[in-house]
Design brief:
Elements (H helix, E strand, L loop, with lengths): L3 H5 L4 E2 L4 E6 L4 E6 L8 E4 H9 L6 H12 L3 H17 L3 E2 L12 E4 L2 E5 L5 H10 L12 E4 L11 H9 L3 E8 L2 E11 L4 E9 L6 H15 L6 E7 L15 E6 L9 E7 L1
Parallel strand pairs: 11-12
Antiparallel strand pairs: 1-5, 2-3, 3-4, 6-7, 7-9, 8-11, 9-10, 10-11, 12-14, 13-14
Helix pairs in contact: 3-4
C-alpha cells in the first residue's frame, strides 16, 4: 500500500449497480445483497458502512470522508482514518469499487521494459480490457488465431478466458496472476498463470503477445521473477504443457529454461499425448 498522502487523495466510486437490494434492519443495521462473485449471501452492514457507500461517488476523497466522520462524531482522526481505510479495503476485496487513474490500495508492480513498454499486475478492474485483447487475438477459434497467440494450456477451456465472471472470481482466490504488457495505454500482451493449491507449482494458462513488442524476453523474465515474490503460496517451479506435436522451440519459451519432463500418453484423447515442461526456481 502506498503512503498515507496518496490514500487520502484516492477517489473511489461504489458500483451501486451491484446492489441487488438493501433493507434496513433493527438497531441501525442494513441487509445487502451484492451481485459479485465474492459474496453469495446477504451481508449485514452498520450505518457507518452505509454512509461511506453513499460518499463513495468518485469525486469525494478519502480525506473528505475522514473529515466528515471526525466532524460528525467528534472521534479521534487516527481511529476514523484506520476504520475508513479498512472498510475501503474490504470493498475492494469484494470487487465493489471502481476508480480513475491509479489505486494506492493496489500495488500494480509496474515496471518499465524499454521502447515505451511497461508491465504491470492486473486486477479485477482490468478484466474487460483483457477479454477484449483475447477476443482480438481470436483465441476462441484455433483456425483463426492470429500471430498474437503464443501459448494456451491444452487443458484449459478457452471459453473461460473470455468470461468476465470467471476471471474476476480468479482474482478472489489470490492464486491467479495476470500480467499485462502495455504501450501507450494499449494492451500489447498478456501473461496468465495460476498456482496449483496442492503443490508448489505455478501453471501457465495462456501467453498472448503482439509480434512487434521487442521486449518479450524482458516481459517473461520480469513476470517469472515477480510471481514467486508476490504469491501467497510458496512456488518451487513453473509448469507448462504442450502436445507432443508441438516443439517448445517454436513457442515463446526456450528449452533449457523449461526442461522436458514426463509424457502423458493419450492425455487429450485421439492419441494426443501431452508433454510436461518445468522451470525450477
Amino acid at each position: 500500500m502506498n503512503n498515507e498522502v496518496n490514500l487520502l487523495e484516492f477517489k473511489p466510486k461504489f458500483l451501486t449497480n451491484l446492489i441487488a437490494y438493501s433493507r434496513e434492519e433493527n438497531d441501525g443495521y442494513f441487509s445487502f445483497r451484492f451481485i459479485t462473485p465474492a459474496l453469495s449471501n446477504e451481508t449485514i452492514l452498520n450505518w457507518t458502512c452505509v454512509e461511506i457507500i453513499k460518499l463513495l461517488n468518485g469525486e469525494t476523497t478519502l480525506k473528505d470522508i475522514v473529515d466528515y466522520f471526525v466532524t460528525k462524531y467528534k472521534a479521534p482522526r487516527e481511529v476514523v482514518y484506520n476504520d475508513v481505510v479498512s472498510i475501503i479495503q474490504n470493498f475492494l476485496d469484494l470487487q465493489l469499487l471502481t476508480w480513475e487513474g491509479t489505486n494506492p490500495f493496489i500495488d500494480k508492480y509496474k515496471f518499465e521494459l524499454g521502447y515505451g513498454f511497461s508491465a504491470y499486475l492486473a486486477d479485477y478492474k482490468d478484466v474487460s480490457k483483457i477479454i477484449g485483447y483475447f477476443k482480438k487475438a481470436n483465441i476462441m477459434d484455433e483456425e483463426k488465431r492470429n500471430s498474437q497467440y503464443r501459448y494456451i494450456n491444452p487443458y484449459v477451456d478457452v471459453v473461460n478466458l473470455v468470461n468476465a465472471e470467471t476471471l474476476k472470481s480468479g482474482f478472489l482466490t489470490k492464486a491467479q496472476f495476470i500480467f499485462v504488457l502495455e504501450k501507450e495505454d494499449k494492451i500489447r500482451g498478456v501473461f496468465f498463470s495460476m498456482n496449483n493449491m496442492k503443490i508448489n507449482v505455478n501453471s501457465l494458462i495462456a501467453v498472448i503477445m503482439d509480434d512487434d513488442t521487442n521486449v518479450e524476453d524482458k516481459f517473461l523474465e520480469y513476470v517469472i521473477s515477480m510471481i514467486p515474490q508476490i504469491s501467497k503460496k510458496s512456488i518451487k517451479k513453473f509448469r507448462l504443457y504442450l502436445s507432443d506435436n508441438d516443439n517448445i522451440e517454436n513457442t515463446i519459451f526456450k528449452e533449457g529454461h523449461f526442461v522436458k519432463g514426463v509424457t502423458l500418453e493419450d492425455e487429450l484423447g485421439y492419441n494426443q499425448n501431452v508433454v510436461e515442461y518445468n522451470y525450477c526456481i
